[in-house]
Amino acid sequence: MNDSLISAAQVGDIDLLYKLIQMQPYVLEQTDFMPFVDTPLHVAAAAGHASFATEIMRLKPSFAWKLNPCGLSPMHLALQNKHYRMVCRFVDINKDPVRVKGREGLTPLHIATQTGRTDLVAKFLSACPGSIEDVTVRSETALHIAVKYNQFRALEVLVGWLQRNCQRHAQDREKRVLNWQDEAGNTVLHLSVLKGVTQAVGLLIDSNINKMRRILRTQQRWTWWRLIKLRLKVQRSEMSS
C-alpha cells in the first residue's frame, strides 16, 4: 500500500487523504485490488481514528469486508484495540460487516461474546439478527463461545434474545441455534455440563433446548439424568443464596 496513504491513516489526516487522491485518483483502487491487505480502514481502525475511518468507509465500502494478512477485518481490529465507540459507528454505517468471518471463522459477535462485551453483543444482534447463526471453523456458535470462556452474562443476553425472538415467530431459529452441535458433537448444554457450569445449565434447561438429546463424547453418554442432577445442584445453590 502507498506509504503516504498509510501515514495519513495512522494519524487520521483526512486532508492528506484527499491530497493523495488528487495526485493519484486510483490510489484506493490499487489497495482494493489486493486480496489480503491492511487497508487505510484497517490502519485507522487499529489506531482509533473514527472520523478518518468513517470517511474511508464512505469512499470505499468494500474495505470493511477485507481481511488483512492476519485474517482480521477493520471491525475485528477496532474490537481488538478496544475502540468500542468506533465499532458502534461502523455498525451504524453498515451493519453487514458484523457477519464478516475473520481468522478461525470468528465474527465480531463471537469476539464480543468471548470478551464479555454484552453491550456490543446486544447491538450486533439488534443490527444483524442472522449473526446468531454464524459458526467458527470449530462449528461453535456464540453460545458455545460464551460457555467456553465463562461469559455467563453474555450467554444470558444471547439466550434472552433468542427467547424474545421466539415470541416473534422465530421458534425454528431458536431451536436450531440452541441445539447446534460443535465439531465434537456438543450442544451448548452439553458443553456446559462438561465444564460444570451450573448457572449455564440452569439457564439452558429453562430454554427451548432439546434436553432429551443424547450425544457421545469422549466415549461417555451424557444422559438426561446427569442434567437433572446438575439442575438440582443449581436449585440448591439458588435456595442457599
Give an overview in words.
This protein has 241 residues and is mainly α. It has 2 domains: 1-97, Serine Threonine Protein Phosphatase 5, Tetratricopeptide repeat; 98-209 and 218-240, Serine Threonine Protein Phosphatase 5, Tetratricopeptide repeat, CATH 1.25.40.20. The chain is 58% helix and 2% strand. The chain is built from 15 helices and 2 strands. The protein has helices spanning 3-11, 14-23, 27-32, 40-47, 50-59, 74-80, 84-93, 108-114, 118-127, 142-148, 152-166, 171-178, 188-195, 198-205, 224-240, and strands at residues 216-217, 220-221. A two-stranded antiparallel sheet has the order 1-2. A hairpin with a 2-residue loop joins β1 and β2. α9 (118-127) runs parallel beside α11 and α10 (142-148) packs antiparallel against α11. It is elongated, with a radius of gyration of 21 Å. The protein starts with a helix and ends with a helix. The relative contact order is 0.07. The model is unreliable at 212-223 (pLDDT under 50).
| CATH class descriptor of the largest domain | Mainly Alpha
Would you count the extended β strands for me?
Answer: 2
- Tell me the helix content: 55-70%
The fourth-level CATH homologous superfamily of the largest domain is Ankyrin repeat-containing domain
Structural class: mainly alpha
Largest sheet: 2 strands, antiparallel
In what range is the share of β-strand residues?
Answer: under 5%
Overall pLDDT level: 87
First-last Cα distance: 59 Å
Q: What Rg, in angstroms, do the CA atoms define? A: 21 Å
Taken from the alpha-carbon principal axes, the silhouette is elongated
- CATH domain topology of the largest domain: Serine Threonine Protein Phosphatase 5, Tetratricopeptide repeat
Main location: membrane
Membrane topology: Peripheral membrane protein
Subcellular location: Cell membrane
InterPro entries: Ankyrin_rpt, Ankyrin_rpt-contain_sf
